[in-house]
């Protein structure tokens, strides 16, 4: 969201065509305006309503998506129970996407609108819809890169019809399928034409093919573009979770089985009185389900497209031709079982293990606009308040947040836009490890190569969460003669390169500390022990020490032995985290 809010602010001020990257000093190209309209919209919502307005918008889009999905399933099955179970299953598979406020939410709603209005069997065939889908695709192409789903899904629906019609015996059915397939193919062509109405024109259609040339590969983002692990049991806190994995595998098995069943049925049954064979399933929906599963297999982020396989399975499950009492009884029993299992699957084995970290049940958490501790906010506010300028090194996961708050004075090393090369992303990991790379370049060589002026170190030594990288760079530049410490707290540090080019930055920092009454020596840098003595309240506010630091010091000196020893142990740990090793050794 931070990236989209930052770009929206820039697009609103200067238009969608940018000649340079406003955030990255390592960018290989300026940003493409493939979601500029959504970015501007999100920025304006934030400007007028603040973060509360963004939360209301987020919840509203999710309600619209799930409500529209329920309505579509209810329309096609005439069963409220089936619709509810289908949407609950969809929520299980799409939760990781629904919990994040991104322009992709607009695409998720757009896909359901596309199906309901243009692709479903219930949607009438009208010539004016060819113009309507062109306009629809034109707006979509300016909102989110997933606009290509409009022509792709239209073509998939047409392919499903053609494939099934080839197996038919009746001329009436062939003519009907050919007419609808031609219409769907026309929708695909019109959607492609409409999508060209964007700042990049026809080039927008080719951007996905060009991805990887000078930009980091999508596979570098483990929780976004990882392929579905068919043969590997999922684990850790990256999607898919075990419940999602099992639900997806069920769909991967059911859809081909239903397709084969429909194929056998259409090739062995005779014609009805009207000359057409009776069908169990809509071939267009079968094509959509197949295309959705292919997308989910390529990248787990597309598992939300499981709406189409879920709809297909639900229609087959509620087939009115199997409404005899034994079948109806089995359906009711199966529905009850699913209703009981889904909540357990969601919270115990499903997405809650991941999405729970994005939410907090306490009211106090939602009284804040956002959790700054997630992005080491004190160090970011220092960079902003002191007015530093230049090229910053930062961990990848902080890039969007830093760009939003520090643009245009500071440019970051890496961010979620992936508009830097694979080499830059690899260098970022090499800097974190602080080991020479395969070209015998040292940590300092890498900082020199990218002309880094300011180094933002973050984290404490810790065991990383499963399948997640852990960033610990806080002490990477401690006591290095070519760098000066300008800010330090328990979990972050800011170092400035000592050279003539950074003389103005050093002057800004000195003026900032004079202004707020905190000691700072431009020759020796930020002295944590001195700051603790001279500005204890400011030190607490900036996360240099915890809020009970003074009470902890007193307990370490005067409390009774068990409490005194515990206080000394914790106090020594704080000193170690701040680099005050002599004080920690004295306590030991």
Give, in order, the helices and strands. HHHHHHHHHHHHHHHHEHEHHEEEHHHHHH
- Determine the mean pLDDT: 88
| Radius of gyration using CA atoms only | 29 Å
| Biggest β-sheet: strands ordered side by side in the sheet | 2-1-3-5-4
**In which range does the helix fraction lie?**
55-70%
End-to-end Cα distance, whole Å, is 45 Å
Total DSSP helices: 25
The low-confidence parts are 270-277
The biggest beta sheet is recorded as:
5 strands, mixed
Please report the total strand number as a whole number: 5
Q: Provide the β-strand percentage band.
A: under 5%
Any idea what the shape is? elongated
Based on helices, strands and strand pairing, what is the structural class? mainly alpha
Give an account of the 3D structure.
This protein has about 600 residues and is mainly alpha-helical. The chain contains 25 helices and five strands. The protein has helices at about 1-15, 35-75, 80-100, 105-120, 130-140, 150-165, 170-195, 205-210, 220-225, 240-270, 285-300, 305-315, 325-350, 350-355, 365, 375-385, 400-405, 420-435, 445-450, 505-515, 530-535, 535-540, 550-560, 560-575, 580-585; strands at about 390-395, 410, 455-460, 485-490, 490-495. Strands 2-1-3-5-4 form a five-stranded mixed β-sheet. A hairpin with a 2-residue loop joins strand 4 and strand 5. Helix 24 (about 560-575) packs antiparallel against helix 25. It is elongated, with a radius of gyration of 29 Å.
Task: Please summarize what this structure is.
The chain has 588 residues and is mostly helical. The chain has helices at 2-14, 36-77, 80-98, 104-119, 128-141, 149-165, 171-195, 203-210, 222-225, 242-268, 283-298, 307-317, 325-349, 352-355, 363-366, 377-385, 399-406, 422-433, 443-449, 503-516, 528-534, 536-541, 549-558, 561-577, 581-587; strands at residues 390-393, 410-411, 454-458, 483-489, 492-497.
